[in-house]
Design a protein that fits this description.
2 copies of one chain form a homodimer. Chain A is of the alpha+beta class. Helix content of chain A is 37%, strand content 23%. In chain A, strands 1-2-9-4-7 form a 5-stranded antiparallel β-sheet. Chain A has a 4-stranded antiparallel β-sheet with strand order 3-8-5-6. In chain A, a hairpin with a 2-residue loop joins strand 11 and strand 12 (225-228). The structure holds a DNA duplex.
DNA sequence: CGAGCTGTTGACATTGCTCAAATTTCGTGG
DNA sequence: CCACGAAATTTGAGCAATGTCAACAGCTCG
């Protein structure tokens, strides 16, 4: 039982109307005139790279929206094996559960700022603003569709297909993928995170990157930067469904 | 593009108030006095074993509740590799998506009866009965938690752990698992379905069943019946998280 | 009784893992 | 700015778990 969201994380206040990710977040369903109600119940906290946000057994008092930075969600087995169930970026939502404990752990990958709300306050907000509930349902259905896609990846794709699918997914998230032109990706997470997300070992991830580079499907200017010179060729090799 | 829910499936009418799975389904959120409104917009359809309910590319006009029987949900890769993302039982919900096409395919495993509702009618119902929206959000969060648990299984468990986890999950669903006593499971799905659910081949599933039987952790009176004589021993071997 | 399907078993191949070491990167302090 | 040490990444060699291909067995339904 940790208390991570109460220590070594500074509390900030910020106007919701200035929030750069409001349109992507749950808050998009709150009318502009009612942002004041939202501001009254949210607070902001910062987390250092690697810092625990909450773990699976923690009592679930708060829900969070990512304002800045990247977060990893994970589940652990008793012997320490880890499965990362998702990487979150600004605008994404975490912490909503029906039960009294979180269903997964969460850690900051880089410097992270979260917008926090007590679950009891969220529930009151949901009663007052039904549109927010719609929004949460939509976001949950999107999460579920992503989870099903990830099950397909984990259960049925080869290491090469997993890595390519991962890169293409990140490429689609960050860019509009007009078509032919090269895309440069920034990977804030470590090889270990990528391995635990794809159900591989770090060695296999590293070897796969190297062999994709040798094939010319990607370029690796540094360990955290990947260039996809030909998206279409990569799509073909990723066993697109 | 199939049209499965319009052919070779008989339409039935049945009173919602007599529905044996109402308490588990979305409909649990509808007041007893307002079941009439529900009955007006639902219809029932039957599917034969193996019959397609809808496939991934189909336009999503309907949502369904399973009244009877078992359903498999799956996603396919272009070359035919399949990942089963879930097995549904009576009371479970399928077909809700934000987009205009289903996010996965669905097939009847055995004789299935579904309670069907047009998505447009569901949306009207949601506006009139906010409690149903709560219920759907809760059900979606449960589905998501199950999906994350399955990602852990697919990405990080061995074949033996996968099979044991699968059996224990079914045991927990069907029984209260008081503790020491033996549990008999009925597996309506084929080895091929189990393999595609666990990210294995049918041969590995079959071999794993055999070796679990040799170890005494399970008994196999027939291919579709599994006895778990000692739940606790099985839990320990399944790498419970 | 035979055909066909599902499940099991066997032999072998292969992907990805384990263990180990080399290399690169990065932060820190001199 | 450079040197050092720690951590992350890459590379290598061997191996184990699981997949592939093939044969066989058992059951169901005509």
């Amino acid at each position: 039982m940790t208390d991570a969201h109460n220590h070594s994380s500074r509390s900030l206040s910020q106007a919701c109307e200035l929030c750069s990710v409001r349109h992507r977040a749950m808050c998009a369903a709150v009318d502009f005139e009612r942002l004041g109600e939202l501001e009254k119940i949210v607070s902001h906290r910062q987390f250092a790279p690697g810092q625990l946000i909450f773990e699976e057994s923690d009592p679930a008092d708060y829900v969070f929206n990512v304002s800045n930075g990247d977060v990893r969600l994970y589940k652990l087995l008793a012997d320490g094996r880890r499965q990362i169930t998702g990487f979150l970026r600004p605008g994404d939502f975490l912490g909503l559960v029906k039960q009294e404990a979180y269903a997964y752990g969460a850690e900051a990958i880089d410097a992270v700022e979260l917008c926090c709300m007590r679950i009891v306050d969220l529930e009151r907000l949901l009663r007052e603003l039904p549109a927010v509930r719609d929004r949460l349902l939509d976001m949950s259905r999107d999460e579920l569709a992503a989870a099903q896609e990830q099950m397909l990846l984990l259960g049925r794709k080869s290491a090469r297909e997993k890595v390519l699918s991962f890169l293409l997914m990140r490429a689609r998230n960050e860019h509009d993928l007009d078509g032919g032109e090269a895309v440069t990706l920034d990977l804030p997470m470590s090889r270990s995170d990528i391995a635990d997300y794809l159900g591989l070992t770090i060695e296999t991830v590293s070897r796969t990157f190297t062999s994709l580079k040798e094939e010319g499907l990607i370029d690796l200017p540094s360990a955290q930067h990947v260039v996809l010179p030909d998206i279409d060729a990569a799509e073909a090799a990723a066993s697109a469904d």
